[in-house]
């Protein structure tokens, strides 16, 4: 058995330091525990992060596979990579945009950077994105609008200093247990308010639970701002000195009583939220806000609440809770929505710097950042002829997943993953990748802290690291893009050098520094600096906007929800996390495809009912678990089950391209077939009563 090796947990984005130990015989991780010396978590660790690292339930991919006569069969790496590069070179010669690339927040910084270099530089395609857009892009857009740069201004250091905590559209008790412990510890001497339509585990721990209707978060947030203004709670000194646009944001604020009725809340709920903002407040939000056609506007409205009440500074601020382990790192370095360092995609200086570093003509770089994952899949099988997915599972994870999966039959699909996923079933070539405990590199958590990821076991025979696979494919398309087998540290140095002088400057980071101190927050422009609270300029503020002032959002009125309930579909479907689930559940459910449990209020169904959950896109067999925590008129499904996204809606936020996962119209229909496996249909709506 190996000695204990320090690393960073790759389950969620808290970024806990772990110690791991390799198995006595063969490959694999024998045991994992929290690292008491790591500055992020000081030894705390959640059980799911430990167990999914040491003993994931998924089926490992152990050899390259190619499709022959309709079946996936084992092959050699040379054959597999040869087929991939031949298909990509042929497509690229016709049109680089005929190749789509979809990455992930589960890659290391080095692999994410390399995939962006491969997609934007070696291939030159606009059809490149990552599944992080499916969870975080609305928060990203709102941060850019307000501060001129992405990512929270605050950090974990502010949690114990806060006097009140408002958790909006998030369930950190389940999604981020270690962070939630810090929040509840701090709230013992203050207050915790949770805003969520469902009484989640986080809501059960709260002093106040506010339950808006699904999709009504923007209405509620603007009602709170209206009440803050009406009751004279605006921090006028801060607003006048450090912000712009407050008057415009107030021009069309709603009448509070009418907004409360529209949001499905009581006036006392609005008053409780306004009262909380009188104290030093951290306002956290998650997927319940972001995953909406109103996501950017709602995230912007939450930032507005912080700005208007002066809740910016130590112990306060707007704090988006990131879903995937390295969503932040993907945003900083992967070139999916901006160049490394979060530089604007159309910035000619940034483009020239990237082209020079990559050794390509600037004209080779695409003209825009692309349409997002949902928009990309609209072109799969049409203008997109080749699709390369890396550590992601769009056949189960995209909204309206039946339609997304059907498109995979019409494209040359390259699936690169550590586990056998639903997407692998459609692949023409499968490239088996290393998983946690087998890879070297770095990751970036939700408070902007970069830390090391280390291998504790040798690679299994037949498996290669993400970085090595990406480099090999990229070199096959455009010779010389990478060294033959690039070292993670050399890629990290190339990546951080490109961020010098940018809003997300990581040029002062090195493996040696990270090994020494454990974790460093960006901006880190030199070997000593690690910024805790961003935009601080002495006692004042300097934001990354043109005027160097923070910007209020436009305060645009609500648009209609994309799919309200109707007589034919009288219930609202919402989705959320289970405590034992991870992303599309590949690591946690393994090969289990038993029917999902649909949680419903006793007023809408009976416990144990066997039903079909039906939307306009399809149906899924399910078993009802009645739960008064779910309000009447709402049903709840886990995001981790492969059937769930057969039902969800592909409508997206017009600013962020993030899908509207959290709200669509549905109905429960009794079934008598006795099925005990997933039953889904993409054509369920065709024979149903129309509205």
From TrEMBL:
Residues 572-586 have a biased composition (Polar residues). It holds the Pfam family Molybdop_Fe4S4. Residues 2-60 form the 4Fe-4S Mo/W bis-MGD-type domain. GO terms for molecular function: 4 iron, 4 sulfur cluster binding; metal ion binding; molybdopterin cofactor binding; oxidoreductase activity. InterPro entries: Asp_de-COase-like_dom_sf, MoPterin_dinucl-bd_dom, Mopterin_OxRdtase, Mopterin_OxRdtase_4Fe-4S_dom, Nitr_red_NasA, Prok_molybdopt-oxidoreductase. PROSITE patterns: 4FE4S_MOW_BIS_MGD. Keywords: 4Fe-4S, Iron, Iron-sulfur, Metal-binding. GO terms for cellular component: membrane. Signal peptide: none annotated. Residues 572-610, 666-691 are annotated as: Disordered. This is 4Fe-4S Mo/W bis-MGD-type domain-containing protein. It comes from Halarchaeum salinum.
């Amino acid at each position: 058995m190996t000695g204990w090796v320090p690393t960073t947990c790759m389950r969620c984005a808290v970024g806990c330091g772990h110690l791991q130990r390799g198995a006595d015989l063969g490959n694999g991780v024998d045991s994992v525990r929290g690292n008491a010396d790591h500055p992020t978590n000081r030894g705390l660790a959640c059980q799911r992060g430990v167990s999914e690292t040491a003993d994931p339930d998924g089926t490992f991919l152990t050899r390259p596979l190619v499709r022959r006569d309709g079946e996936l069969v084992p092959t050699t790496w040379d054959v597999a990579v040869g087929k991939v590069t031949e298909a990509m070179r042929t497509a690229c010669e016709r049109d680089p945009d005929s190749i789509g690339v979809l990455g992930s927040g589960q890659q290391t910084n080095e692999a994410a950077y390399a995939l962006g270099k491969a997609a934007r530089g070696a291939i030159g395609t606009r059809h490149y994105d990552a599944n992080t857009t499916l969870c975080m892009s609305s928060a990203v857009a709102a941060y850019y609008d307000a501060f001129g740069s992405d990512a929270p201004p605050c950090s974990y250091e502010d949690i114990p200093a806060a006097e009140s905590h408002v958790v909006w559209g998030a369930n950190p008790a389940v999604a981020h247990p270690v962070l939630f412990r810090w929040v509840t510890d701090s709230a013992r001497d203050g207050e915790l308010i949770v805003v969520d339509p469902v009484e989640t585990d986080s809501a059960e721990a709260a002093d106040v639970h506010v339950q808006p209707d699904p999709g009504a978060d923007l209405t509620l947030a603007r009602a709170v701002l209206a009440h803050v203004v009406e009751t004279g709670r605006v921090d006028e000194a801060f607003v006048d000195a450090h912000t712009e646009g407050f008057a415009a944001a107030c021009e069309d604020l709603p009448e509070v009583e009418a907004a409360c009725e529209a949001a499905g809340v009581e006036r006392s709920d609005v008053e409780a939220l306004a009262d909380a903002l009188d104290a030093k407040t951290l306002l956290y939000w998650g997927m319940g806000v972001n995953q909406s056609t109103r996501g950017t506007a709602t995230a912007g409205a939450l930032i507005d609440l912080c700005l208007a009440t002066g809740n910016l500074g130590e112990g306060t601020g707007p704090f988006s809770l990131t879903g995937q382990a390295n969503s932040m790192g993907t945003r900083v370095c992967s070139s999916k929505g901006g160049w490394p360092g979060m530089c604007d995609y159309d910035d000619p200086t940034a483009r020239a710097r990237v082209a020079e570093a990559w050794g390509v003509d600037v004209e080779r770089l695409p003209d825009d950042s692309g349409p997002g994952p949902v928009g990309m899949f609209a072109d799969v099988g049409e203008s997109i002829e080749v699709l390369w997915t890396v550590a992601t599972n769009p056949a189960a994870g995209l909204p309206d997943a039946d339609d997304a999966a059907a498109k995979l039959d019409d494209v040359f699909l390259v699936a690169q993953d550590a586990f056998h996923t639903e997407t692998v079933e459609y692949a023409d070539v499968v490239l088996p990748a290393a998983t946690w405990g087998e890879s070297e590199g770095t990751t970036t958590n939700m408070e902007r802290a970069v830390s090391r990821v280390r291998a504790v076991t040798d690679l299994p025979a037949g498996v290669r690291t993400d970085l090595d696979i990406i480099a090999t494919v990229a070199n096959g398309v455009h010779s010389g893009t990478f060294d033959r087998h690039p070292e993670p540290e050399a890629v990290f140095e190339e990546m951080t050098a490109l961020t010098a002088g940018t809003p997300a400057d990581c040029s002062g980071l090195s493996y040696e520094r990270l090994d020494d101190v454990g974790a460093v927050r960006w901006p880190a422009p030199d070997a000593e600096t690690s910024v805790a609270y961003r935009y601080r300029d002495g006692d004042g503020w300097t934001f990354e906007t043109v005027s160097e002032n923070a910007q209020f959002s436009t305060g645009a009125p609500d648009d209609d929800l994309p799919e309200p309930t109707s007589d034919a579909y009288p219930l609202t479907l919402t989705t959320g996390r289970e405590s034992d689930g991870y992303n599309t559940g590949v690591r946690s459910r393994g090969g289990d495809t038993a029917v999902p449990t649909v949680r419903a209020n006793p007023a809408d169904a009976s416990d144990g009912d066997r039903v079909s959950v039906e939307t306009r896109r399809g149906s899924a067999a399910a078993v009802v678990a009645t739960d008064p925590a779910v309000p009447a008129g709402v049903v709840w499904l886990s995001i981790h089950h492969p059937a769930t996204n057969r039902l969800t809606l592909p409508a997206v936020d017009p600013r962020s391209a993030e899908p509207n996962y959290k709200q669509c119209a549905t109905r429960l229909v009794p079934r008598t077939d006795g099925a005990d496996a997933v039953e889904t249909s993409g054509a369920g709506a065709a024979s149903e009563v129309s509205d």
